[in-house]
Amino acid sequence: MDAFCSSSSCSSSFLTKQALPSCSSINFAAGVRTVSVLHLSMPSLKPRAFPNSIRKHSLIGLPRASVAVEQQTQKSKLALIKIGTRGSPLALAQAYETREKLMASHTELAEEGAIQIVIIKTTGDKILSQPLADIGGKGLFTKEIDEALINGDVDIAVHSMKDVPTYLPEKTILPCNLPREDVRDAFISLTASSLADLPAGSTVGTASLRRKSQILHRFPTLNVQENFRGNVQTRLKKLNEKVVEATLLALAGLKRLDMTENVTSILSLDEMLPAVAQGAIGIACRTNDDKMANYIASLNHEETRLAVACERSFLLTLDGSCRTPIAGYASKDEDGNCIFKGLVASPDGTRVLETSRKGPYAFQDMIDMGKDAGQELLSRAGPVFYDLQSVFVYGGCLLRDANKRKLTVEKIATPNPASGRLFLFMVNLQLHGSCGAAIFSSVRH
Predict the structure, then answer these.
(1) How confident is the model at residue 254 (pLDDT cuts 50, 70, 90)?
(2) Which residues form the catalytic set?
(3) What is the pLDDT of residues 51-101, one digit of tens each?
(4) Considering the chain, what is the average pLDDT of its residues?
(5) pLDDT for the residue 414
(6) CATH top-level class for 8-25+184-266?
(7) How far is the CA of 211 from the CAs of 225, 315, 348, in angstroms?
(8) For position 230, what pLDDT does the model report?
(9) Of 128, 185, 189, 389, whose CA is between 20 and 30 Å from 418?
(10) Neighbours of 168 (CB within 10 A)
(11) Which Pfam families does the UniProt entry name for this protein (predicted)?
């Protein structure tokens, strides 16, 4: 297992306070009075991060997708560009960042009403009662936006790159990544200064299997609430209501929302490797729309684009989705080389495989690095590792032994050094749920 390098930029640091007072509170939006653990009344969220025009808007229904158009001004019918985005505060912040950059780069777009924001509700926004891994499928937060793009309801689509499937939909291209934000994860708690400071049995809320597996690998005595979903404000509200003792959020999102005052500490890359493309924004358009392609390509940040391409090559090789705990990060060192770090894990954190690569910071070299790193982890993990862990996660199926203890992948199948085949512990197993046949199918060798 390759060791990861550490640097001062990766070190854990505190943004706000190291000692937490008994009446610590969480701000749900910049400039809003806090809601404390003393159960003061909830404030109304004020979208101060957005232009004033967002506060007064009308919604117009459009066909073929759950689309609502926010009219920026009375001249919105003359809009030269319609930007498709989700409606969460963070997604809107990213859409407005895109709009501001377009306005600054093209004088014709700086006119009032030239750019219109189109809010689109995605599958991931509609289904909040289940963990993302249980919903299944790819593009949970992008599919409907891409459909609106293909159908001509919007001209460009703004995505969080970590949500974008490894294969883009037909008839779309993604020629632009904006400059990447901080890729690290933030630890937020009212009672502890870090994950290590949480007492055994404490509950950490996260909807991310990547975060869950890395938390449990380092702190197996902690509990993880998987269905801790919602936008940033919703999760902070749940934390304030003591649904959990702590949560992890992407620092990039908190910075874009101007909400870093809520951060207790920042996890280093050695403590928590980020999701592939975390902190990166991608802008897509239709394949045959040269005008839009030229508009958004002018905003592209090449260093970010290459890093994201390297990480997504790694993800593609592993055929990763929201059901698989995968992490990857490519960066440029002081000598101008690409340093890539990758990780794959079992959902319960009992097995974590890591690797790293170093090479030229050039497109094809970085694509090859990501692919090679993914192939290494595939080889080291073995096919049953992936088959069984997907069975564990998919549909919430439980596999238990005769004493009704939940089994891990390692307890079900271990390598037989004599033959190289798998010795399967299938005696006295009790299968619960509808995936028993899938388990036998995947492990019958």
Answers:
(1) very high
(2) 163
(3) 433 333 322 233 334 444 444 433 445 789 999 999 999 999 999 999 999
(4) 76
(5) 40
(6) alpha beta
(7) 11, 16, 11
(8) 85
(9) 389
(10) 16
(11) Porphobil_deam, Porphobil_deamC
State the span(s) of the chain assigned CATH 3.40.190.10.
Answer: 8-25+184-266, 52-180+278-300
Total-model pTM: 0.72
CATH 3.30.160.40 residue spans of the chain? 308-381
Residue-wise DSSP of 244-261:
SSEEEEEHHHHHHTT-GG
CATH number of 308-381: 3.30.160.40
> What superfamily does domain 52-180+278-300 belong to in CATH?
Periplasmic binding protein-like II (3.40.190.10)
DSSP 3-state assignment of 107? helix
Looking at residue 52, the DSSP 8-state letter turns out to be G
* Residue closest to 169 by CA, chosen among 98, 307, 65: 65
Sign (positive or negative) of CA dihedral 396, 399, 405, 406 = negative
pLDDT band of 11, cuts 50, 70, 90? very low
**Secondary structure of residue 359 in the 3-state scheme:** strand
In this structure, the dihedral spanned by the alpha carbons of residues 235, 236, 237 and 241, taken in order and rounded to 10 degrees, is 100
Determine the distance from the C-alpha atom of residue 386 to the mean position of all C-alpha atoms in its chain, rounded to a whole number: 20
Structure tokens at 17: 């306070």
User: How does DSSP classify residue 421?
Assistant: S
Give the mean model confidence (pLDDT) for residues 132-156. 85
Tell me the C-alpha distance between 69 and 154, whole Å. 10
How far is residue 387's CA from residue 406's CA, in Å, rounded to a whole number? 17
Cβ density class 286-311: b for 16+ within 10 Å, e for less: beebeebbebbeebebeebbbbbbbb
